[in-house]
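Data availability (excerpt). The following record was deposited with the supplementary files.
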Amino acid sequence: MSEFLDDAQKTTLLGLARDSVAAAVSASRPAVKPATKDPMLLAKRGAFVTLKVGGELRGCIGYPLPYKPLVEAVAEMAVAAATQDSRFDPIGPEDLARLNIEISVLTLPKVIAGIKDIEVGRHGLIISQGRHSGLLLPQVPEEYGWDLETYLRHGCLKAGLPPNAWKTGAKIETFEAQVFSEGFGAEV
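Predicted structure:
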């Protein structure tokens, strides 16, 4: 990964994500408008925001590609993870005290020559074929104890493809991520 964020930048992004979620779930708080002059935070970067309440996943949404400045992507994806992840009930005001926020700042994806180029725990996956596409962050296989083949199968399933599509022509891309959470507990 070429440009790592320092602790002050991580703290800024985590605070922005928390303020954005709190504003989104509270009718009385105005939406957060990110303000910074930090060139690293204004650079366009792919980013995902993962929300856990009491240790349980409650939302994870992001931009795999650098569509927006990092501060805007984090603020927007924090709100989306809290309110629009269709797999979970929206985050409510009662969840804020037990909410933990994790941010993954991504490198650009690269098409790989073969699966030997994938390092589990270091590389995230994007598997696609036709109109189907699925993304798994690099920390996911470690959280579940997956080996490489299990990781590839789950990437295919996430894309809505058969679990062996990685063997039959699906495009496989990898990326890396700088991952941090409140307390900077998870660093990849």
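Summary of structural features: The mean pLDDT is 91.
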